[in-house]
Each structure stands twice: as C-alpha cells, then as structure tokens.
Amino acid sequence: MICEVPLQSYLSFNDPLFERLNSHGGKQPFKGDCRNIEDVDNCLCLVEIEDKQLKALRSLLLSLLRMITILLMRPPLNKEMNSDPKYSTIRFKLTYSFLIMARKMLIDGELGNATEEEAHYDFDLFVIGAGSGGVRAARFSAQYGAKKVGICELPFHPISSEVVGGVGGTCVIRGCVPKKILVYGASFGPELEDARNYGWELNEKIDFNWKKLLQKKTEEIIRLNGIYKRLLSNAGVKLFEGEGKVVGPNEVEVTQLDGTKLRYSAKYILIATGSRAQRPDIPGQELAITSDEALSLDELPKRVVVLGGGYIAVEFASIWRGMGATVDLYFRKELPLRGFDDEMRAAVARNLEGRGISLHPRTTLTELVKTEDGVKALTDHGEELIADVVLFATGNSMPSLFDFF
Ligand SMILES: Cc1cc2nc3c(=O)[nH]c(=O)nc-3n(C[C@H](O)[C@H](O)[C@H](O)COP(=O)(O)OP(=O)(O)OC[C@H]3O[C@@H](n4cnc5c(N)ncnc54)[C@H](O)[C@@H]3O)c2cc1C
C-alpha cells in the first residue's frame, strides 16, 4: 500500500531517516513501515490506518457528548432540585462546557481532513523572522499539530541591518538581554560608592573594564542564540539561514548566505520581522547611533547625549551614568516615560537627576555637527553641547510589508 509520511509525527530531527525522507520534501509516497529505516521501500500505510482510527474514535466521542448534553439539558425528575437556582446554574455551565467541547472536536475534525492540495504544500506554516514572535509562533504551531513548519532568519550579528540579525531577534541579541547585562554592570558603580558610607573600606583602586563586560555580554547572547536554535529544532521546526521574501500567494523564497535561492510553498506564511530603530530626520543624523550600536561600542563614552524620553533612552542614560559618563537627556514632554503612570514618571525623573543625569524636558535636537573633539549637538533652545556619543532612542518603525514581496 502507498502512504504519505507525516515526518514529524514519527521521527525526531536527529533520526537519520528524517533527512532521507525530508530530501523528498516529506511527501514522497513510501511503502512499508516507515519508522524502520530498513523497511522504507517496503511498508504499510501509516497515515491511512491512523486516519481511520481517529475518525472512528472521533465519531464515538461525538455520540457520547451528544448523549451527555441531552441528559444535562433534561430537567431533573426531583422537583426540589428543579426549582433550586444553584442547580440550574451548574446544569447550564456543564451543558455550555460540553457544547464548547463538542464544537471544538468537530472543528478539529474538519481541520484534520486536509485536502489533497493542502497536503502538498512544503510547509503548513513558514515564518519569516526568528525573533521572540516568530520563534514562539513556529514552536507552538509545530507542538500543537502543524506537521511541517519552517522559519528563516538573517545570519547572526549583534548590530542588525538589512542583511544580518540572528535567531532570538532583537530582545535576545540587541534588546532586553544585552541591555539588562549592561544595566546590572552599571548598577555596581553607585553601589560601590555607597558602600564606603556603610563601613566598607575599598582602599585599592577599583577599575571597570568595559571591554570585558562587552565580551561577557556577547558570550551570553551567543549562548542564548544557540538555545533558541535548539528550541526550534527540538520542536521539529526547520530553520533556514537567509533573507525571506514572499514571492507568491503561498510561496516564499529564502536567499541563503552564498546567494543561492530556495523556494517553498506554504499553506500559511507569517511575517514576523519586528521593527528597526528610527532616526529623526535632522542634519548630521548619521553621526548619532541607535541602541543597536550602543550595545556594542568599542570604548566606554565619557560624554553622552541621549535624545528620547522612552524606556530605552532612560535605561541607556542610566547605564552610562552608572559607569561614570556625564549624561544629558533630551525629551519632548515635561517628564520622561510618556504613557506610564504620572506619579511614577515624576519619581523616575527625580531619581535620574539624583544620579547626576541632566534632564532637558521639552527640548529636542535640531542638528549634529562633527568636531575635532566629538559630536556637537544643537538644540531647539539654542544650546550647544559636545559629546563622544549621541544616542537616538526615538522609537522604532516597522519595515514596509512591501519589502517582503
Ligand atoms: C534596546 C532595546 C531594549 C528592549 N528591552 C526590552 C525589555 O526589557 N523588555 C521587553 O519586553 N521588550 C524589550 N524590548 C523590545 C523587544 O526586543 C521587542 O518587543 C521584541 O524583540 C519584538 O519581537 P519580534 O519577534 O516582533 O521582532 P524581533 O525580535 O525584532 O525579530 C524580528 C526578526 O526578523 C528578522 N528579519 C527581518 N527581516 C527579515 C527577512 N527578510 N528575512 C529573515 N529574517 C528577517 C530580524 O533579523 C529579527 O531577528 C527592547 C528593545 C530594544 C531595541
């Protein structure tokens, strides 16, 4: 008998048979017990047996559910119980739950009956972008029944661009995680200073090694990048390294590192490509950096100007100040962290000033000029300031969807 092998139902990615079957796109008709590598050319129809058993089981369960629902809806014979409102509420809740279960089973049953056309897609789901969203969607789809799930991601690099990224995405590689490592690193400075007031005698000179901290941060994100890759492969998701594009209603193209292009059909395509830091359109804007570069600076800056009042601006201002830099924070509103609770915003503003960060509310930058001594930042209040680093933390913008077509 001839069968189509739903690869991931039976095999793990490590199974040598997986590769052999996968090289046929997982759709090649096989004979024999496909779980046995020796029997690949000579086997039974696993899919057909499984389908028949499932259908029989489903209709049995549905009949049972129908019977239970009818029984529950029937008024009780006992008259006292019948007039008890508690009893009717319980009865209503039970009936409702059973109806929902029955409906779900029916829907699952429908989904289970893939049409010929559906069965011939290379992937049930193909995800473009392996950040927090993409990885989660791919893993969970694979774990909850999608048989063939693919995902593509740009090659790893801590500073993102059109051509580099990395599995784990912004949060893991150039967002939450590396930022927190720097926040923790920076928090020791004021603590050590404070410790002197509590009897600690820190007599020897205490040095801070920026390069070492960055190296530790890079090691950690490489470790997490590996974990994310393993999470995907353990869930049975096939990872492609390269740039993804949608090239047809159900077709994706992945341009690999060496320029070769792979094309796959997919029943569903998910674009999960996140967003990129944006730069305000002012003269000299190319002299500033964004959070991507801020997490990988070669040298620790001594003078910093930060533009933006959101959490990324506030966090980087605190990181650099904690490491001893002078920091000027410019933002448009009266207080930083627009959208957060007002009392909390006021408390944060006081704390930032308490740490020695100069706040410039209702002020923005109008121009940046390269000087011998650094970058000159001009403000709309006519002030000028020289800094080693100017950080734009003015929000992110989504890439246009048309970039993916
Ligand atoms: C500095 C910073 C600090 C942050 N701190 C926090 C925090 O503390 N807590 C928090 O909850 N959030 C934080 N965030 C936000 C968090 O990182 C994002 O909300 C989250 O990463 C969004 O996930 P995503 O999957 O939508 O996109 P992303 O994580 O950006 O993933 C999208 C992926 O798609 C890839 N990609 C793009 N185009 C293509 C293509 N054509 N082909 C293949 N792959 C492509 C990219 O390389 C990227 O890896 C922070 C962000 C930043 C920048």
From TrEMBL:
It comes from Ilex paraguariensis (yerba mate). Belongs to the class-I pyridine nucleotide-disulfide oxidoreductase family. Its cofactor is FAD. InterPro entries: FAD/NAD-bd_sf (IPR036188), FAD/NAD-binding_dom (IPR023753), GSHR/TRXR-like (IPR046952), Pyr_OxRdtase_I_AS (IPR012999). Its EC number is 1.8.1.7. PROSITE patterns: PYRIDINE_REDOX_1 (PS00076). Homodimer. GO terms for molecular function: glutathione-disulfide reductase (NADPH) activity. Keywords: Disulfide bond, FAD, Flavoprotein, NADP, Oxidoreductase, Redox-active center. This is glutathione-disulfide reductase. It catalyses: 2 glutathione + NADP(+) = glutathione disulfide + NADPH + H(+). Residues 123-396 form the FAD/NAD(P)-binding domain. PANTHER family: GLUTATHIONE REDUCTASE (PTHR42737:SF2).
